[in-house]
Amino acid sequence: MSGQATISGEAPDADAIEAIARATIARLPAQFAEHLGDIVFVVEEYADDETLAALGIEHPLDLSGLYHGRPLGEKSSMDSGAMPDRIVLYRRAILEEWIETGVRLDDLVAHVTTHEIGHHFGLSDDDMHALEDAAEDSAEDPAT
């Protein structure tokens, strides 16, 4: 997938970001993907003031994605009437990080999407960073 738009051209719109994220989800192993069917997925320009305040974040460009919901391990059959879980990607924050870091846009969107999906499965930020570090370490040392 191309996902890498030219930085000097027009910024990718919400539909382009969503397409990359949905392609990421489509590549997930079936045992994970089967638990994502009811999640509402949206791309917004940036987080609103209420969301930022609730998370203790001062600037909207500091939040690139957010999972709203209860992790799978905390769900119960008694949870009727609850709003569906949502994953929100914040386009402007993603584009800002893309420009600042030079990371490929499709890789960045895939990372943010996967990170928010991790929260759906009950992983904390620390859990996900540890998994990423372990993956990087094993990629650098093929003997492990």
Textual characterization of the structure:
With 144 residues, the protein is mainly alpha-helical. The chain has six helices and three strands, in the order ααβαββααα. Strands 1-3-2 form a three-stranded mixed β-sheet. It is globular, with a radius of gyration of 16 Å. The model is unreliable at 1-7 (pLDDT under 50).
Beta-strand percentage range: 5-15%
**Topology, number of strands:** 3
Low-confidence stretches: 1-7
Task: Note the gap between the termini.
Answer: 30 Å
Overall helicity: 40-55%
Main sheet specs? 3 strands, mixed
Mean pLDDT: 82
Radius of gyration: 16 Å
Oligomeric status: single chain
Task: Going across the biggest sheet, name each strand in turn.
Answer: 1-3-2
Question: What topology does this entry show?
Answer:
Layout (H helix, E strand, L loop, with lengths): L13 H13 L3 H4 L6 E5 L4 H7 L9 E4 L17 E5 H11 L3 H16 L4 H16 L4
Parallel strand pairs: 1-3
Antiparallel strand pairs: 2-3
